[in-house]
Amino acid sequence: MSCYLIKVENGHKVARSITSEEEYKQLRGSNEQKANLRLARAGNDAAKRRLVQFNYSGHYPQGVVKGMKLPSGAFGFDMDEPEAFAKAAKLLLKEPDKYGLLMLERSARQGGHAVFEREKGKTVLENQVRIATMLKCEMDTSAHDINRVYFTTTSDGEDLLFLSPRLFKDEYDEAAVAAEGKVLEERERYGQEELPEGAHKANKHYEPWKEEFKKDSQGVFKGQEFKNSRISSSAASTAAASAASAAQDNYLGIPYGEIIKKWWQLYNDGQEPMRSNRNTLTFELAVNLRHICGFDRNLLAQIIPCYDGFPEQEKMACINSALNEKITQMPKRLKDVLAALRQEKLKQGASNGNADEDSEALVNALDEANAKDDLFYYDALPKMPQGVRDSISAVGPALAMPVITAICPTIGMLATGVKVSVHGKMNSLNLISYIAGDFASGKGSIDPVVDAWTSEVKQMDKMYQQQEDEWRARKRAAKNKKEQPEEPKLPVRCLTLNNTVANLAERLANTEGKHAFSFTPEADTVAQKWKSAMSDFSVMLRQAYDGTSYEREARSADAVNVHIEHLLWNVVMCGTPDALYRVVNNYTDGFQSRIVVARTPDNTFTPLTDNLFVLTETQREHIRQIAHLLPLMEGEVVLPKLENKGREWLEQIRLETMKNDDKVKARQRFRICPTTMRMMTCIMLCKVAETLIQKHGFQGAEKQLKQNPLLWEEMIVKTQTPTMLEAFNILADYQLDNALYFFRSRIEDAFSSKSYCGQTTYDRSRRGKNDSIFERLDVTFSFEQALQQSIAVKGANVTREVVRQMLKNWKRQGLIGVLPDMRYQKVQPAV
Fold first, then answer.
1. How confident is the model at residue 119 (pLDDT cuts 50, 70, 90)?
2. Would you state the pLDDT for residue 44?
3. Distance CA 406, CA 391 (A)
4. What is the pTM of this model?
5. d(CA 81, CA 96)
6. What is the SS3 assignment for 516-572?
7. Closest CA to 79 of 90, 69, 70
8. pLDDT interval class at 611 (50, 70, 90)
9. What is the Cα–Cα distance from 785 to 277, expressed in whole angstroms?
10. Nearest to 194, CA basis, from 158, 242, 226
11. CA dihedral defined by 59, 721, 387, 497, rounded to 10 degrees?
């Protein structure tokens, strides 16, 4: 193929071929693309990096971009100078066939890009020189990499100046192309491209038509002094490698050395790793640095020193282990390092009067870090179904995960009759979520989305509330009469949290066995109204999550008595992190593990722009259609592939947490798995509704569900595709990351508190030198490390037998375990 869409998945570039003009224009013409282009042209670098990326040159065999198998029939050409681009565009549009033009566009900032047909038997650089010579246009000789990507613009006529259908049609014989590609790859690898000598210089203003060259009988360029030899090409590649190395010793202008130095200042008291801890600390450093090194093993090996006589082989083992760890968002500790460096630069700049210049690179670095963080989960998400997709479009990519967290409880409320099997037990779609973010962080844009999902239910509630108002008026009129009007038991389902325990319990009892739903844009409503009854609130929500019975008895005849067989109540709260800690203030009772917490992006230093993402009428209508069909789905369903996915994730986290004895993370996984299975069921129900609408139309879909009540069960089983199930890990990992981000230290403090009466652990009443040795050792250690620390604490007379006996005692006491490689791992710290 000649056109590839490039995305980054799990830290690596992945290519997908674009096979139609319609798909190509659709990608370029999305609302997100247009919004990001406006920001990019206003100078926002992060927005530019979010633009859709295309590659036109394909890849040769043994390439590194997944998804590219053959060299394409095209190649890209970059023109940075506006005047040069305008001149070239005029010539190209006049005679596009003469140049083999396939696509012409204006770039995001200045200049433009063109795509041409590739002449067979020539490399990308040879073809670029050919076009530059024909157009007499300057070219960038460093832009001939076959992995070159282009940040594209929109499909509007002002941006996309020319597009040929031939860009999406390759009529090459695959075997012949593969053979040709192999030859070209060898030529390019060994510098054997037959070009003018100037083409080998890294020059953005190279003018090939001014070079003295000639063509041979086959039309191949030959420089007068160009030597086609392995020796000269080897020297050229060495020089290129040195130039690349020099360009890679910094992250967006910040030397890696400064970042590493600040890392040790913040996280190791300014001390570099020593022999006793260098393995662990080098691994932690590599796990963090990989996010700003492009997950490049060679670059990590180059910038991370060998601490305290570290053998190169052992250092590389630590780096390899770090690269094999699961890909996560950019770690908060790394962003804190960048923020600390920025503060230092600002202070230095303030005294020198050039704060803006000194901190520019760091501002860009923080902007890049936040942009990657905000879009990490969004980029990994598969294509979402109607309703969910429209909700994300209404708030923007950066708020994709928060809005999914907010609408899944709403979907669960609407599909109130649906139950899904989780670990062999039927679960209703009971969900509780909290959207945490600082003020002015975008939480308010979620409100209209939730309102769109609940609009039909709220219309019914208004009718019931009118009846209640009429009853109250009649009751006031009959205040002194013997006969009082009977109070109606109306099934109002959207309940305010600004209420008393008794009134809320009564409302929940009147929902006729259907889910109730509560949404508050300000969680402080809960913190204030339920301040004296927060324990009652916590108990009600815990029982609502489990779907268990809820009883409330009172002696007074006028007081509320409530008997609910299955409490069905989904709740969504938005608020600041501070309010979150007022709502969730107990970390041992299980409420924290039942609540899904999402985070809005950090927009502290984001420039003020127009609100580019709003809920449109089209999106509102799409949501309303799905919301109308969900209540028609009722019954129990078993999803075996989803169950297997959940079990795989549980086992993966269990193995990860065993490595470093992370009990907090290990326990969090137990409830996150069923929560995610419920959320996935909500999303797949939307997929079922979307499929029916696409096949039968909205009214036809409603008719189908009414005529065949079991149809949705058959369809949802088929939605368990590998693509859809990819979302499971993304949702589960997101919940786990946020739970640990907000609650890890509080959970650890709560369980280690003297007031907590949990399971008993081995209590060591006497402390001695062995306890000091235990504390000095890493979580995982070898016999030799134990011997070294014993000598450091007890003196040089320590024998190997004494250390061996000490380790036996620790093992018998349950303090350590023995690993398969005969090293030791701490099971619990000494007290």
1. confident
2. 72
3. 10
4. 0.64
5. 21
6. EEEEECCCHHHHHHCHHHHHHHHHHHHHHHHCCCEEECCCCCCCCCEEECCCCEEEE
7. 90
8. low
9. 10
10. 226
11. -120
